[in-house]
Amino acid sequence: MSLVDILIFFLVIWWPIFFILLPIGYEPITTENEKTKFVRSAPKKPKIFKKFIFATSISFFITVFMWFLDYYKLFSLKEVFL
Fold first, then answer.
1. Which residues contact 21 (CB under 8 A, 6 or more apart)?
2. For the chain, how many structural domains are there in total?
């Protein structure tokens, strides 16, 4: 795998993992007495940075694992799709 292949694979894996992690820990705003500028379905604490770090680390390990498989010729996505 070239560096461009690795980068593209990482980004393609990162986005779905990030969107899978977004609803985890969701807690809606429930204060009805206070008028807020947010809708009630907005999360209290979105914890975006934490989810960003988790998505990056999971994607990194998957990318390293796939690179390892490709480097030692155990499995290659290029051979599967070409």
1. 51, 54, 55
2. 1
